[in-house]
Amino acid sequence: MPRPFVTFAAFAGRILVCSMNDTVTNNPELSLFLPVLDEEENLRPMHEKIKAALDELGKTAEVIYVDDGSTDKSLSILKELAAADGRVRVISLRRNYGQTAAMSAGIDAARGEILIPMDADLQNDPADIKRLLDKLDEGYDVVSGWRKNRQDKLISRKIPSQIANRIISWIGGVHLHDYGCSLKAYRREVIQDVRLYGEMHRFIPIYASWAGARVAEIPVDHHARTMGRSKYGISRTVKVVFDLMTIKFMASYQTKPIYVFGGFGMLAFLISFVAAVWAIVLKFEGTSFILTPLPVIAVVMLAISVQFCLMGLLAELLVRTYHESQDKTIYAVRERIGF
Q: Are residue 204 and residue 112 in the same domain, yes or no?
């Protein structure tokens, strides 16, 4: 065989191999994404566990670390991991936006068929990824981890969490034991259009259920934190309560806000009407309008009822604008590494 032909064949073969590798890299089967905030002690051992779990699975994967404005050496360590492991990608946010924004950045950047969020503090166990995937294979779209033997403080973490989970399940209609567990598995189609705000990342299974997804839950391992400092406190419960109010509103009135505003408007109008009639009755009995607060109540509640109705109309306009508006992220990226 002529040497030029051999050289050309070898060159073509290298191109074909590179093309196949690029295809695998650009379309991985799994996308793991981990929000990171000041976890310099935990990152290297956590990544070793992730590597071991992925190697055992034998699936193509990418690991996306989202640095949420860390002030320690976390970003430097993440850059080292990206240089040493071709599966690692790093997103560095300009400042600390919070876990929900970091999760949203991971979702937006993920390219895998199955998306798996995790904490970077070594409390989640990457070995549980296989069990999540096995449950997905049973026909589910979302599999949520349940920290059945949670290794956290009883008063400040476990009891408030149990109460919150019961309330969330009742309001959201998706009955899970542990909404706060970050370790979950999602099929891309049920999460790719989700937009997160506030502390809404814990409610993703509810959003997915609203879109028709099948949701399951399995117990997962949970380890006590041995290095670094927890970023969660009991004050977070207050934020969850307000987000629950938002969830309830979105579940019942997202596309018809005039119903809730109009309902309050009608209630205010009813109070105004009763106060006015009562004042008129008292007038006929000899009590002057200036001797009773009822006329003032009637006027004020009438004004409030009109305001509520107008707010409902404005909310209807906002809802329509929301559904037709352009996509906007709730975070800003400083740099991307490995993309």
A: yes
Asked whether 51 and 301 are in contact (CB, 8 A), the reply is no
Residue 103, in any domain of the structure: yes
pLDDT tens-digit readout, 126-178 = 999 999 999 999 999 999 998 887 766 766 667 777 888 888 888 778 888 88
Task: Choose among 301, 300, 295: nearest CA to 277.
Answer: 295
Measuring CA to CA, how many Å separate 285 from each of 190, 279, 280, 288, 297? 66, 10, 9, 9, 19
Distance between CA atoms of residues 216 and 138, nearest Å: 10
Sheet of strand 333-337, all strands in order from the earlier edge strand to the far edge: 215-219, 142-146, 184-187, 114-117, 30-36, 61-67, 88-93, 333-337
Segment 168-221, tens digit of pLDDT:
888 778 888 888 888 999 999 888 777 777 667 888 888 888 778 899 999 998
Q: How many domains does the chain have?
A: 2
Global pTM exceeds 0.90: no
- Three-state DSSP class for residue 146: strand
Q: Which residues of the chain have pLDDT under 70?
A: 1-25, 151-152, 154-157, 198-199, 225-239, 241, 251-252, 255, 320, 322-332, 334
Q: How many CA atoms lie within 13 A of 143 on its CB side?
A: 21
* CATH number reported for the structural domain that contains residue 190 in this entry: 3.90.550.10
The Cα 177–Cα 147 span in angstroms is 8
Contact 265, 306 (CB under 8 A): yes
Contact between 126 and 49 (Cβ < 8 Å): yes
